[in-house]
Design brief:
Layout lengths: L6 H13 L7 H14 L4 H4 E2 L2 H12 L4 E3 L2 H6 L20 H13 L4 E4 L3 H9 L6 E4 L7 H11 L3 E4 L6 H13 L8
Parallel strand pairs: 2-3, 3-4, 4-5
Antiparallel strand pairs: 1-5
Helix pairs in contact: 2-9, 6-7, 7-8
Length: 194
């Protein structure tokens, strides 16, 4: 199914590319960088994001072959418009040493098992919990936002060796996390991977 791009979005990307040269980036990296910058109007993401083209290619294939998409909060789910997602936050509870977000990750992992794409844009504790599990993800989009634990959880994600999209700074959020996943969803499937 082809996606129809609204003229406002086309003009927005034209203006983005006039201000930020992404032509040197590999295709999926470029798609993610542009979509994240577009969703935030923050050109700084071009230097802040940490991505690997080979990991993105494997995740792109998994996504288009039907791998489940798990999100930490409903705001991330709302931003992913072309794919159902799993969000267990409503079913989760908190307790000593366990946030609702961390519990939701445990519940989602029990539901989807290995091979999912995880999109975390709100809660650093959700990302920390995911790193404690043996989730074997296709990709972790770890872009939680905040002054407590966000940069540290993203650094831990990069150190884990898991396939990931992250950024170095404290910025992030639901919109940019959903945008990173959407970049992979909207990018065409090549004949080699079809």
């Amino acid at each position: 199914m082809n996606r129809v791009v609204h003229p406002i979005e086309q003009e927005s990307f034209r203006r983005l590319r006039a201000r930020l040269d992404t032509s040197h980036l590999p295709p999926l990296t470029r798609a993610v960088v542009e979509r994240v910058v577009h969703s935030s109007a923050d050109l700084g993401y071009a230097d802040d994001l940490v991505l690997d083209e080979a990991e993105l290619a494997r995740a792109h294939t998994a996504l288009h072959e039907g791998a489940p998409v798990v999100v930490d909060v409903e705001m991330v789910a709302a931003g992913i418009t072309r794919r159902p997602t799993v969000c267990r936050l409503k079913d989760a509870g908190s307790g000593p040493g366990l946030t609702r977000s961390a519990h939701a990750v445990r519940l989602a992992h029990e539901e989807v098992g290995p091979g999912a794409l995880w999109v975390i844009g709100c809660a650093p504790t959700a990302l920390e919990e995911l790193l404690r599990l043996d989730a074997s993800p296709a990709l972790v989009i770890g872009l939680p936002v905040g002054f407590v634990g966000a940069a540290e959880s993203k650094a831990a994600l990069r150190e884990s060796g898991l396939p990931a999209v992250s950024n170095v700074s404290e910025k992030g959020g639901s919109a940019v996390a959903a945008a990173a996943l959407n970049a992979l969803l909207y990018h065409p499937v090549s004949k080699e991977t079809a």
